[in-house]
Each structure stands twice: as C-alpha cells, then as structure tokens.
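Sample pair:
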Amino acid sequence: MNSSHYSANATFIGPPPTFHQILAITLMTIKIILNSIGLILNCFLLYMIVQNYQKLHKTFSILLTYTLINDCLISVTLLLTIKRIIQCHETLAMVFFGPCTYISTSFCHVLDAVHLHALQNWILSQILLIGFRTAMLSSAQSFLSVKRTIFFCVLAWLPGLVSLVLHVTYKFSRPRLLELIHRCYDEDFSYSYISGYESFYNSPLPFTIVMLLVPNVPHYFLAYCFRHKQNHDLKRRTMSTSTLRMHTTLRKVSTMKAFLPLFLLADVLIYFFCQLEVLPPQFIEYFLGTISSSINILNPVIAICCFRPYRKMFKEYYRLILSKLSAHPKVMFSEGSSDEVVNL
C-alpha cells in the first residue's frame, strides 16, 4: 500500500512548468514544424525542376534552384541544431538540442555557421530573381544567358562564403562563455552543448548583420524599378486580354515576393535592438528564427501556385500519384512553352 502510494505521488514531484518554459517549447515546436514542411515543399519543387529542366525556362529555373537550395540548407541546419539562443549584454550563446549533439558541439557550431551562410545567400538570391523579372520587361533580355546566370549565382555566393569562414574559424572559451552567461541566467549550462560569441564586437556577428541588412536596399530598389517599368508598359501599350492578365498576375507575384525579405529583416532587427538593450533579451530566445521560418514555406508555395509551368507540373504529379493509387494510366508532364514562366 505504502509503496504504491509513494510511487503514485512521485509522478508529481517537482515544480510545474513556468510560462517562460511553455512559451519557449511552443515556439520551438512551431519552428520545427514550419521548417519540416518547408523542407518537404522545397525538395519537391527541386525534384520537379530537375526532372523537367529541358521543358522550363532555363535561366529562371537556375535562379529558382539557387534559392531553393538555400531554403533547404536553412531548414536542414535548423532541424539538425534545434538551438536555444541566449543573450546576456554583448554575449550571445547557443544551446543545442538537435541531432548534431550526437556528434559534437563543434559540429553544431559549424552547422549554425552554415545556417547563417544560407540566410545571407537567400537574400542575395532574391535580388537576382527580382533583377531577372525586371530585365525580362526591358531590352536586357538578350543579356540573360545560362552562363551569365550561373556566374551571378557564384558571385552572390562569395560574400556568404566569407562569413562562413569567419564563423567556423571563430574561437571561444567555454568556461569564459559560461561565466558571461551566468551574469544574466541562474541556470546551470555546464552540461549543455553550448557555443557562442563572448563579445558581439569581437566576433563575425557585425559583418553578418551588415550582410543581412544591406542587400535589402538594392532588392527594394529593383522592386520599385520593376513596378515602375510595368506601369509604364501598361500605359504605353495596347495589350490583349491575356497579356494584361499576365501583367496583373506578375504584379501580384512580385508584390508577394517583395515582402518575403521582411520576415528575415524582422529577425535581424530583433537581434539588433536586443543587442542595443532596447528590447529585453527574451525576444531573441522566443522569436529569433521563428518569424523567418515562414520564408521556407511561402517561397515554394508562391512558385508552385503563381507560375504556370510549376503549377502545371504540380497538378500532373498530383494526378500521377492518384493514378498510381487508383491503378489508372500514368499522366506525365506535357510539353509546353519555355516562356510560360515569364508569361505566367
């Protein structure tokens, strides 16, 4: 009797979870779900592009593939690390809980550096995409070729590579990092898989923030040029109903795509204002990475829903899956114009 009484009561030993713990776990779960869904969608769209590359607009497909690879890297590195971000004055630490901990803390630190590298590449890939759409409405169409597109992708990849090297080669003292964190937190992190930056000002973080903020200027400048060029064409030309519908759809797509970098910009501003101690450090722990995780879902969804060839491929693959399940004849992707990606 007594033993069963004590074993029953043992289940309830310990304080109940605090609001801080519940909120942190909830937001981390949301982040994992968003990145898991985003990874599936991006991999599926990549598969469709690879399988049907010869039937698509090659230049645009290369640019979209570059963006999707960065999306996949962002999701994979976040799912492998699953980190809790802790800020104490100028110190920033990451406590890792993901599968990377089965290897080592150093491996987790490298994956986190790759995550930042992919974020920088992603914002630069958006500049390439909006630049492509602007060029397609102007006389610069002849300048767009597969070789030049690959060259611009490599060029956009280099600044992120510099940041990656800086983060991977950054050295920190674990005892010193724990000592700095304990100025703000009473928790015991001595048994945690932890890495970070002892001082914001003596780390690669300022360079990373600049690389995430500055590209927004040319991105929105090109978005303005695209909108101005499109309005000019609509006023100057007499267009058919189909062409007018194409421009209307393209305007909606470009507006949606233009808003995507704002999700990443929100993360950067949260960290920046927390570093200046304008916002409490809990904002970093709760919201950093949660807002920008929406990008990984929205980017492939916009491509699949709004661009005709990708929408057509999605429908055909959906019918193919249904035909396999219901034993109907296979329905394959039909040959179409490579200009559909521009003409929607």
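The two ends are 74 Å apart (CA to CA).
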